[in-house]
């Protein structure tokens, strides 16, 4: 397509790609965002993209920039991108945009220097964080090593202790059993048990009575609330009432354990009877206990002649051990009668085993921790668990690195969890960085995803996307509720300085105005 | 007899349904009355049934006393006697029929004893004794000159009046019983009391009865009831609803007893009736909609009115339209019955004509009715608007796109949305703040936590000439140390209860009082609240939104005020209920008018309205739902408002309640781009849905729809100008544009944009890929985007995939538009125009363009440009001053200044569809300025491949 020179920048769109009007808004409509129109693009279907990104502003004394064509000659001085005011060259409606590049440029350079300084400081800070993180991971690695050694030691020790216990048990089982002492431990036990059972029975009756009262009160309360829900006037939109109704609905929707049923009550009735009434246990019978048959069986050697008793005793002992070891015969246990020595040995073994378990668990945790993603250079290891806050509107918001996000009402009331840390994400942003540098800029950014916070009535569980940009100090810049209970935090931190969103390579410092 | 009845209630009801658990919006049925629960409605229906059952033996007890009839200066006056029988004295009802230019009649009937105040009120009520006579003070603003040609012929039997254009209209006033027939073209067009259902319940003292009445009921409303357990009066009437009436927990003390008025109005041989917004049903109140008397939900096809009422009804048949306007502000029910004329029983209905019989019932007030005889729909709306006022010429920004949500939560949030719209190159003009911006729902305050810097926010918006709208409601929070409520209380500016103390009720803020805008002192005080000194944190780009002005009272009967509440002048709330919203809206308009010096045109959105509200702002259809059926219903609802003289109407785009699917939202934007009032809005519990959040391709398609709206803004603004001078609708249903095309009388899902010839059929169904559009006979249309031609005389199917808005252009029109996308309408001011021309078969086309500064009242001093474009005989496009007589461009200082300022704005491009083939190969056209100065040849190109499209370059 050929045009006469006079057709260039004549404020009339000739070229299908707008290339004849780099200096006017005449081709601004050539965009997939415009309604399609045959008559619009010069006999071409629209939806063509423009040849140029926008109107070029020389911005002498500052850095050049592009203003969208749709902002050219609209009566507004777009100093953000066009400090020389050249976007309003047609002076429509008497618009005058003086050249402000001198001061804007000066200010920009000042801020740019500040930014660079800040950036240097941020890089330094990141290095510190990385060093800190390295130190922390080294600590973990060291700890793992120690733990592994400890575990080996534990295992050896346990082996020894196990042998010891086995020996002692052997001896214990083979020991000649003495006559039961008078008047019989079982009798005492029975006495104690009787008292204890009586006490339990009484408590049961009491608790049951309390339960029944509570049940009635609960029913009454549920009745009140359910009427309340039916009858309240939703038009009032009273936050408190709304919350109460919501709470009740959540409560009502939950599976509730049934409190008591007839069968259970019958059982309780039975249990609550005194033993004399129920005839379940005749305590008198037990209070004068005789040796049981089994005991006699265990102790029959006592009735043999002295001469062979020793030999038979030994044989029987071995046989019994064999039987016991093979599970044929039950172990003869009278805990009371177990020797202190054996108990101690067992305890020692138990504690050694616990110690091993503990160490193993710790080892797993530390191994997991070491393997976990803490971002590039594991830099977030240095921040984990630390929190930063910001006031916004009627709330104070809190971001705790890699753990939780929270919302606290200034009007009082508790915290609301806005999510628990789940993973690192990449988010594409397209924002203008304000002069103070506290903004995300545009491009891909590292983000921390927090999910499964407190449930929102008529909505999802709260969640937060924490989008990060490089800054000297860790700071919560901005919180927005993007939609119902879905939050977004914009946060500056040195942790992401100089890395791209994939967590590697070098992220160029943002250099937008 | 084939008949069906539609019953419409004109009590603006409020529909606030928050805390909805299911997605369906459901009104609590028990909160709203049925006719049976509304005593006066029940009595009048029973009366009508009795009249119908009595057949020809029934004689209406109302007669005109012949010797009282006077004919003078356009008026026929006299006294109607209501006979009570049984030797009781008759009731005197003063009658006035005013014949006005041009062919409009107004019938007014009052009650003499109450005019004189010669009655006693029960319970020592301080209420006024007269019937409410002041509706017209609020509603009527214009024309009321008597018809100078009006002549009357009196005889004992009847009075016959001839009036109207060429004295071609006749009103036949029969004296006994009283009835009026209105005649045009030798045909009776409208009959009053033709069926004898007229009723005016006269005042009577409450008689504590001893004896049971044994006489037969003879009086008008004396319906013989089975003497069961009803309390019966001395004449055997059912008195149970005469005195106290209870509904829910509220008891209406009814100090004046029964006082309803009713009239039957028949439209012989008219099958279609339209109008009486607002209700959520089809435009044409048709036979196909069956009797549906007491389903009270904002559900589709419900005859119940919602937030506002305009009691203007059209009856239409081929080549003839007539209308009535029932000017009464009390609760009103309208029954509509269609009846086949049974003159020839052997015809079996073939060729038989259908009459529409209507029965209008109001709780009290006057019988006060305007009669319009057409003959075209536009004559009726023009005459109605000449009386109740044309819609205001709005600020231009207000016909752009409005971005609203309950709520933008902080000033930063507002600024962020503003930035994002800019960055995504999506045009919009206004962002809105719902009730949460206030400190604890105290209007005229800001929440200091969430809106610490309101002025900074407004400054940012102003940088791209965008505006802010904030909500202000009529309930004033009852809280200590709140200066607004302290002033209201100390100066006694609120509405009173029946005991004449300040009325306290519940609304958003909890305990509240309501400003009484019937009180001039209250309105004066209201003015003072909007000054920049008083309403701190507001700048000149802040405008207003009035909600809850029905008024909505959460703990009141039917969510509004007790009817025995008292307003200024001791009028009962029942007298003025339907006017309440208008008075509040009006007060805010007046306050805004006084805020700026020199004054700028206010913009105030209202939810409640009455005839006359169109003068002071825009309305929306209230709390709709994110569903396809609500999108569908929005079209007839908005068309209904447009033919009822309140064209600045819209529905919440996307649906207020619930989350629309992306497809629904996209389709809703495409439809909304053709609502006169175009606002996206969402409930606080819904997900964010600003256009840029939806994601492509939806965001892109929505942006296209928004840019289409902005591209056509010159056509829209011209349409608003036409509405503001003539009352003509901005969006027009088929029957209005083609009043002779019977096949299209039922259409309410496609419509025209004013006089532009643009025909829109929004897609309102899920998954559509095409739509069927009905085109009238012998017409040619072109697709707006592809220029593909369609021939009329039936239904055509046109493609409508998601990215396509079904939009056609009728041949013969010139559409002005601005093609350059900008951030807001204000920034388009200096852009050149494009003229899109569709030539008809003779190579002709015409169109118009109205421009002014879009914000001030300078246009009244001639500071405007109004051009008529004509294209004739396929040769010549001419632009000339529009000389309509009403507004010829002035030659004053402001006019000259404006003309000078606009001298740089011209036409950059002319696109001609259906251009003559002979143009092919021509390279230039000749352009001449006014005065004949030749400006030389302009480039031009021709493309036959595009069905004859020519495109001409910059002028």
TrEMBL record, chain A:
<dbReference type="GO" id="GO:0006491">
    <property type="term" value="P:N-glycan processing"/>
</dbReference>
<dbReference type="Pfam" id="PF12999">
    <property type="entry name" value="PRKCSH-like"/>
</dbReference>
<dbReference type="InterPro" id="IPR009011">
    <property type="entry name" value="Man6P_isomerase_rcpt-bd_dom_sf"/>
</dbReference>
<dbReference type="InterPro" id="IPR028146">
    <property type="entry name" value="PRKCSH_N"/>
</dbReference>
<dbReference type="InterPro" id="IPR036607">
    <property type="entry name" value="PRKCSH"/>
</dbReference>
<feature type="coiled-coil region">
    <location>
        <begin position="119"/>
        <end position="217"/>
    </location>
</feature>
<dbReference type="InterPro" id="IPR044865">
    <property type="entry name" value="MRH_dom"/>
</dbReference>
<feature type="region of interest" description="Disordered">
    <location>
        <begin position="333"/>
        <end position="360"/>
    </location>
</feature>
<keyword id="KW-1015">Disulfide bond</keyword>
<feature type="domain" description="MRH">
    <location>
        <begin position="385"/>
        <end position="499"/>
    </location>
</feature>
<dbReference type="InterPro" id="IPR039794">
    <property type="entry name" value="Gtb1-like"/>
</dbReference>
<dbReference type="GO" id="GO:0017177">
    <property type="term" value="C:glucosidase II complex"/>
</dbReference>
<keyword id="KW-0175">Coiled coil</keyword>
<protein>
    <recommendedName>
        <fullName>Glucosidase 2 subunit beta</fullName>
    </recommendedName>
</protein>
<dbReference type="Pfam" id="PF13015">
    <property type="entry name" value="PRKCSH_1"/>
</dbReference>
<keyword id="KW-0256">Endoplasmic reticulum</keyword>
<keyword id="KW-0732">Signal</keyword>
UniProtKB/TrEMBL annotation, chain B:
<dbReference type="GO" id="GO:0006491">
    <property type="term" value="P:N-glycan processing"/>
</dbReference>
<dbReference type="Pfam" id="PF21365">
    <property type="entry name" value="Glyco_hydro_31_3rd"/>
</dbReference>
<dbReference type="InterPro" id="IPR033403">
    <property type="entry name" value="DUF5110"/>
</dbReference>
<dbReference type="Pfam" id="PF01055">
    <property type="entry name" value="Glyco_hydro_31_2nd"/>
</dbReference>
<dbReference type="Pfam" id="PF17137">
    <property type="entry name" value="DUF5110"/>
</dbReference>
<comment type="pathway">
    <text>Glycan metabolism; N-glycan metabolism.</text>
</comment>
<dbReference type="InterPro" id="IPR017853">
    <property type="entry name" value="GH"/>
</dbReference>
<dbReference type="Pfam" id="PF13802">
    <property type="entry name" value="Gal_mutarotas_2"/>
</dbReference>
<keyword id="KW-0256">Endoplasmic reticulum</keyword>
<dbReference type="InterPro" id="IPR025887">
    <property type="entry name" value="Glyco_hydro_31_N_dom"/>
</dbReference>
<feature type="domain" description="Glycosyl hydrolase family 31 C-terminal">
    <location>
        <begin position="727"/>
        <end position="815"/>
    </location>
</feature>
<dbReference type="GO" id="GO:0005975">
    <property type="term" value="P:carbohydrate metabolic process"/>
</dbReference>
<dbReference type="InterPro" id="IPR000322">
    <property type="entry name" value="Glyco_hydro_31_TIM"/>
</dbReference>
<dbReference type="InterPro" id="IPR011013">
    <property type="entry name" value="Gal_mutarotase_sf_dom"/>
</dbReference>
<keyword id="KW-0378">Hydrolase</keyword>
<keyword id="KW-0732">Signal</keyword>
<feature type="region of interest" description="Disordered">
    <location>
        <begin position="204"/>
        <end position="259"/>
    </location>
</feature>
<dbReference type="InterPro" id="IPR048395">
    <property type="entry name" value="Glyco_hydro_31_C"/>
</dbReference>
<feature type="domain" description="Glycoside hydrolase family 31 TIM barrel">
    <location>
        <begin position="392"/>
        <end position="719"/>
    </location>
</feature>
<keyword id="KW-0325">Glycoprotein</keyword>
<feature type="domain" description="DUF5110">
    <location>
        <begin position="834"/>
        <end position="873"/>
    </location>
</feature>
<feature type="signal peptide">
    <location>
        <begin position="1"/>
        <end position="26"/>
    </location>
</feature>
């Amino acid at each position: 397509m050929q045009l006469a020179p006079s057709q260039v920048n004549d404020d009339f769109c000739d070229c299908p790609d707008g290339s004849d009007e780099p200096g006017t808004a005449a081709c601004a409509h050539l965009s997939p965002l415009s309604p399609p129109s045959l008559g619009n693009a010069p006999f071409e279907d629209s939806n063509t993209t423009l040849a140029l990104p926008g109107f070029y502003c020389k911005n002498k004394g500052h850095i050049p920039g592009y203003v969208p064509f749709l902002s050219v000659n609209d009566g507004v001085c777009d100093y953000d991108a066009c400090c020389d005011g050249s976007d309003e060259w047609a002076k429509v409606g008497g618009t005058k945009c003086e050249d402000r590049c001198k001061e804007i440029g000066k200010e920009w350079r000042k801020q740019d220097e500040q930014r660079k300084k800040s950036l240097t400081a941020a890089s330094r800070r990141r290095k510190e964080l990385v060093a800190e993180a390295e130190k922390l991971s080294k600590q973990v690695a060291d700890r793992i090593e120690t733990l592994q050694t400890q575990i080996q030691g534990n295992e050896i020790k346990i082996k020894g202790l196990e042998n010891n216990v086995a020996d002692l048990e052997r001896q214990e089982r083979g020991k000649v059993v003495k006559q039961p002492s008078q008047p019989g431990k079982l009798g005492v036990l029975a006495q104690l048990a009787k008292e204890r059972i009586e006490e339990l029975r009484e408590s049961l009756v009491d608790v049951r009575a309390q339960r029944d009262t509570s049940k009635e009160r609960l029913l009454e309360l549920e009745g009140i609330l359910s009427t309340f829900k039916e009858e309240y006037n939703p038009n009032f939109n009273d936050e408190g009432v709304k919350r109460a109704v919501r709470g009740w609905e959540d409560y009502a929707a939950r599976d509730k354990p049934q409190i008591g049923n007839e069968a259970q009550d019958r059982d309780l009735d039975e249990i609550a009877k005194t033993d004399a009434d129920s005839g379940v246990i005749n305590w008198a019978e037990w209070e004068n206990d005789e040796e049981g048959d089994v005991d006699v069986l265990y102790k029959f050697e006592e009735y043999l002649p002295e001469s062979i008793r020793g030999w038979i005793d030994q044989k029987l002992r071995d046989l019994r051990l064999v039987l016991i070891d093979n599970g044929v015969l039950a172990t003869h246990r009278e805990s009371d009668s177990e020797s202190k020595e054996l108990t101690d040995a067992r305890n020692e073994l138990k504690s050694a085993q616990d110690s091993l378990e503990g160490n193993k668990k710790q080892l797993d945790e530390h191994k997991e921790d070491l393997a976990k993603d803490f971002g590039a250079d594991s830099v977030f290891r240095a921040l984990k668990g630390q929190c930063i806050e910001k006031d916004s509107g009627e709330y104070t918001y809190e971001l705790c690195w890699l753990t939780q996000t929270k919302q606290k009402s200034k009007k009082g009331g508790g915290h609301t969890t806005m999510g628990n840390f789940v993973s690192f994400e990449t988010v594409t942003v397209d924002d203008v960085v304000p002069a103070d540098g506290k903004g995300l800029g545009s491009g891909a950014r590292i983000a921390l995803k927090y999910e499964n916070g407190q449930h929102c009535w008529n909505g999802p569980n709260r969640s937060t996307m924490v989008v990060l940009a490089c800054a000297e100090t860790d700071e919560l810049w901005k919180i927005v509720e993007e939609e119902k209970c879905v939050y977004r935090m914009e946060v500056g931190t040195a942790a992401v300085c100089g890395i791209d969103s994939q967590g590697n390579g070098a992220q160029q410092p943002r250099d937008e105005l | 007899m084939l008949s069906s009845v539609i019953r419409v209630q004109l009590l603006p009801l409020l529909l606030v349904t928050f805390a909805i658990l299911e997605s369906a919006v459901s009104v609590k049925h028990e909160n709203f009355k049925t006719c049976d629960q509304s005593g006066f409605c029940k009595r009048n229906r029973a009366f009508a049934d009795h009249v119908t059952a009595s057949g020809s033996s029934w004689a209406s007890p109302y007669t005109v006393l012949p010797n009282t009839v006077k004919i003078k200066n356009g008026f026929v006056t006299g006294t109607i006697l209501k006979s009570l029988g049984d030797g009781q004295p008759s009731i005197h009802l003063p009658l006035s029929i005013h014949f006005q230019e041009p062919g409009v009649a107004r019938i007014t009937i009052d009650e003499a004893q109450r005019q004189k105040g010669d009655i006693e009120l029960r319970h020592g009520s301080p209420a006024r004794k007269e019937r409410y006579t002041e509706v017209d003070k609020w509603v009527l603003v214009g024309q009321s000159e008597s018809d100078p040609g009006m002549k009357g012929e009196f005889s004992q039997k009847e009075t016959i009046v001839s009036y109207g254009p060429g004295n071609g209209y006749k009103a036949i006033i029969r004296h006994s019983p009283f009835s009026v027939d209105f005649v045009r073209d030798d045909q009776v067009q409208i009959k009053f009391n033709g069926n004898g259902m007229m009723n005016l319940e006269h005042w009577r003292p409450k008689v504590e009865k001893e004896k049971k009445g044994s006489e037969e009921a003879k009086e008008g409303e004396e319906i013989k009831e089975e003497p069961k357990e009803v309390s019966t009066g001395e004449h055997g009437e059912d008195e149970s609803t005469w005195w106290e009436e209870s509904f829910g927990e509220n008891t209406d003390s009814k100090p004046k007893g029964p006082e309803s008025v009713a009239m039957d109005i028949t439209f012989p041989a008219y099958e279609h009736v339209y109008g009486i917004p607002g209700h959520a049903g089809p435009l044409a109140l048709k036979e196909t909609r069956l009797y549906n008397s007491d389903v009270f939900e904002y559900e589709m096809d419900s005859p119940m009115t919602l937030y506002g009422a305009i009691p203007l009804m059209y009856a239409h048949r081929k080549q003839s339209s007539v209308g009535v306007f029932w000017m009464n502000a009390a609760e009103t029910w309208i029954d509509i019955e269609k009846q086949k004329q049974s003159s020839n029983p052997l015809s079996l209905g073939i060729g038989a004509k259908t009459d529409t019989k209507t029965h209008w019932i109001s709780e009290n007030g006057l019988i006060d009715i305007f009669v319009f005889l057409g003959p075209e729909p536009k004559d009726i709306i023009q005459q109605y608007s000449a009386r109740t006022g044309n819609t205001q010429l709005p600020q231009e920004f207000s016909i752009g796109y409005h971005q609203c949500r309950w709520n933008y939560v902080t000033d930063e949030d507002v600024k962020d949305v503003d930035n994002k719209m800019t960055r995504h190159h999506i045009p919009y003009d206004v962002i809105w703040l719902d009730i949460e911006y206030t400190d604890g729902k105290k209007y005229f305050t800001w929440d200091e936590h969430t809106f610490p810097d309101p002025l900074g926010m407004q400054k940012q918006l102003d940088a791209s000439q965008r505006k802010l709208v904030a909500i202000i409601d009529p309930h004033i929070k009852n809280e200590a140390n709140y200066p607004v409520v302290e002033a209201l209380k100390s100066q006694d500016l609120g509405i009173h209860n029946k005991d004449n103390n300040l009325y306290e009720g519940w609304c958003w803020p909890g305990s509240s009082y309501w400003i009484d805008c019937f009180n001039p002192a209250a309105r004066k005080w209201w003015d003072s609240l909007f000054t920049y000194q008083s309403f701190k944190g507001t700048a000149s780009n802040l405008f207003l939104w009035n909600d809850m002005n029905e008024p909505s009272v959460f703990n009141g009967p039917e969510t509004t005020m007790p009817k025995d509440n008292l307003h200024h002048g001791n009028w009962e709330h029942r007298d003025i209920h339907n006017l309440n919203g208008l008075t509040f809206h009006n007060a805010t308009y007046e306050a805004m008018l006084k805020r700026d010096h020199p004054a700028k045109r206010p913009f105030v959105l209202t939810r409640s309205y009455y005839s006359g509200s169109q003068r002071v702002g825009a309305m929306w259809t209230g709390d709709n739902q994110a569903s396809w059926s609500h999108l569908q219903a929005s079209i007839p609802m908005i068309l209904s408002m447009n033919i009822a003289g309140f064209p600045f109407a819209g529905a919440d785009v996307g649906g207020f309640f619930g989350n629309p699917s992306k497809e629904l939202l996209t389709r809703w934007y495409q439809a909304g781009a053709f609502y006169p009032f175009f606002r996206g809005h969402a409930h606080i519990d819904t997900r964010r849905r600003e256009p840029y959040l939806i994601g492509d391709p939806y965001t892109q398609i929505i942006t296209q729809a928004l840019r289409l709206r902005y591209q056509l803004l010159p056509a829209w603004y011209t349409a608003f100008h036409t509405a503001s001078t003539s009352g003509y609708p901005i969006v027009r249903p088929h029957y209005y544009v083609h009043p002779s095309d019977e096949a299209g009388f039922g259409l309410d899902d496609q419509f025209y944009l004013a006089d532009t010839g643009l025909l829109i059929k929004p897609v309102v169904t899920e998954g559509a890929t095409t739509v069927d559009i009905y085109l009238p006979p012998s017409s040619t249309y072109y697709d707006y985007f592809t220029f593909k031609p369609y021939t009329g005389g039936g239904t055509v199917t046109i493609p409508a995939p998601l990215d396509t808005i079904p939009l056609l252009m009728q041949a013969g029109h010139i559409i002005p538009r601005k093609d350059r996308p900008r951030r807001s309408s204000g920034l388009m001011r200096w852009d050149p125009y494009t003229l899109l021309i569709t030539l008809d078969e003779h190579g002709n086309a015409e169109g118009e363009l109205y421009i002014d500064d879009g914000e001030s009242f300078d246009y009244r001093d001639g500071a405007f440009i109004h051009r008529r474009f004509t294209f004739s005989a396929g040769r010549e496009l001419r632009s000339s001053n529009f000389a309509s007589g009403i507004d010829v461009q002035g030659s004053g200082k402001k006019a000259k200044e404006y003309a000078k300022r606009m001298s740089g704005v011209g036409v950059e491009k002319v696109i001609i569809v259906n251009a003559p083939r002979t143009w092919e190969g021509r390279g230039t056209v000749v352009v001449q300025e006014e005065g004949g100065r030749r400006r030389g040849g302009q480039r031009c190109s021709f493309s036959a491949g595009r069905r004859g499209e020519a495109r001409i370059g910059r002028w």
